[in-house]
Amino acid sequence: MEQLMEQEGNDMDLAGGGILRQQQGPAGDGEETDPTQYYENRLKMLDSLRSAGVDPYPHKFEVAISVADYVAKYSNLGAGEHLLTVTESLAGRVMSKRVSSSKLFFYDLYGDGVKVQVMAGASSSEVAETEFYKCHSVVKRGDIVGIVGYPGRSGRGELSIFARNLILLSPCLHMLPNQRTGRCTTVAGKTTREKAGADCWVPGIGRNTEAYVLKDQETRYPQRYLDLMVNHQVRHIFRTRSKIISFIRKFLDERNLLEVETPMMNLIPGGASAKPFVTHHNELNMDQYMRIAPELHLKELVVGGLDRVYEIGKEFRNEGFDLTHSPEFTGCEFYMAYADYNDLMELTEIILSSMVMELTGSTKIKYHANGADNPPIEIDFTPPYRRIDMMQELKSVAGLDIPLDLSSDEANQYLAATCEKYGIKCSPPQTTARLLDKITGHFLEATCVNPTFIINHPEIMSPLAKWHRTQSGLTERFELFINKHEVCNAYTELNDPLVQRQRFEDQLRSRQSGDDEAMALDEAFCTALEYALPPTGGWGMGIDRIAMLLTDSQNIKEVLLFPTMKPQLPG
Fold first, then answer.
1. 66 touches 76 (CB < 8 A)
2. For residue 570, is the peptide bond before it cis, meaning its omega torsion is within 30 degrees of 0?
3. Which residues fall within 8 angstroms of residue 17, CB to CB, at 6 or more apart?
């Protein structure tokens, strides 16, 4: 034991002079650099272990403490201090392997994103010297190992566990990408920077994905496990996403909203204007549709007397995907009886500003809206948010004199001519609602960097929203835009069953003219309205887009653990 401590002090003091070295090769173990040969050698290693009566995949290892708890528990140890009478057992993944001139082995062991150094020498091992070197020669980067040893700090102050025994729990058969040295440590829920680098990141500040170990998106997204393994910053993205959902759930629970679940498969695709995915129910021998929104079911629950309900879950839209759209995404919708869109605008300001404050410590964040190569912009979530009246703003900003009767051919022709004049693309069918949506995006949405409400949409664009109480032809609806993208959509709900049925019939005509995103007529929902839906406010938010903002992600795939990807062709 004394010999190990003496060697440790010498090796660590001379580390800067090259006495302590990382073994060569991308695998960090001196192996060949050919991935195929590496894999074959690892398979041979498994055969060798089994022939020697060693199970390379043991069923159980008793873990007494997690790596994170170990780091927190022994963080106060001084340089060179060792607790020889204390025994701890922990497990994790080897992400770095180094060997000293005096045959001491050093490993960086990671558990749930937290690192601790493992130091192993033959003099402190419970096994014979021959077995010790044989055991450590087997361990490679990526392996899952169990460590039994005592706590301490090296002579240079590195918190370590000094191994008495190392057990291979699950070998990694593939060569890992080279590992960086910059990393973050999470202790008691707090993220701290050990070194500047790609791994050091907290919500609300810019990220540097160029410093990632593994950069290729065609590898990172389908093999998310590898991405999480070597790009330690990535796990903080998904922790932040989880915190966003937890915050929303807590916020709504505290206001007496009831979380519910509604069907994922429906006879009619309703609740939003979108093209659905079609599936088939074998037992019933009928097609069904993956839900595009839970809205209609949630409002039926309000009809039934559940005055405040919400749902957080998946929604599916059979449309193209780009940097801000995914065919499978997560949304939150809630419905509050006796609330209107004015109440919901105030609530939106509260939920977003308090969420950003809780997660980042400020109501202002940095976001690389123009790409990682350009300086980040600042987005300020401090209320009150700017409000833009859609039709009034189109007239004052763009000088558009849109005909008042939006259902007329004249209005449609005017909007089509406007798109042509300004080079605004609108794919067929060029319905009035679609044209107006594109024009709004061009003139108004592009100005919405800080959170901004666009309010009072025309009825022709909002088949489920209630008519405006003072402005004919408009609805009490708002969309919240941040960084030029829609994040929330809400309105005073239409609760007149006769008007709702008429709106559905108007949508049906749009569908018959070729708009496959127009809503279908849902008689069951209209019947539910006939039993009386109280005055109600309804609200929806895209979880993924909020996660993008708070994690400085410019691609929605960055915040989806397993995003939809085009299959890669073999070869």
1. no
2. no
3. none
pTM of the model: 0.90
Residues 142 and 251 in one domain: no
- Token pair, residue 86, equals 């204390």
Phi then psi for residue 537, to 5 deg, are -110, 135
> Whole domain around residue 530: which residue ranges?
236-385+450-558
Structure tokens at 321: 């995907």
Give 77-111 pLDDT, tens digit per residue: 999 999 999 999 999 999 999 998 778 999 999 99
**Burial class of residue 233 (count of CB atoms within 10 Å of its CB; 0-12, 13-18, 19+):** buried
Same domain, 249 and 374: yes
Q: CATH number, domain at 299?
A: 3.30.930.10
> Six-digit token pair at 547?
């996660």
Structurally, the chain folds into a number of domains equal to 2
144, two tokens: 């899952």
Q: Are residues 157 and 285 in the same domain?
A: no
- Which segments in the chain show pLDDT lower than 70? 1-32, 179-200, 569-571
Summarised one tens digit per residue, pLDDT across range 372-396 is 889 999 999 999 999 999 999 999 9
CA angle 216, 217, 223 (to 5 degrees): 95
* Contact (CB, 8 A) for 266 and 315: no
By DSSP bridging, strand 286-290 and strand 278-281 are antiparallel
Q: Which domain CATH number covers 77?
A: 2.40.50.140
Kindly compute the dihedral angle of the four CA atoms of residues 273, 288, 296, 259, in this order, to the nearest 10 degrees.
Answer: -120
Q: Which domain-ending residue is among 170, 199, 216?
A: 170
CB atoms within 10 A of CB 157: 13
**In this structure, are residues 533 and 504 in contact, taking their beta carbons and an 8 Å threshold?**
no
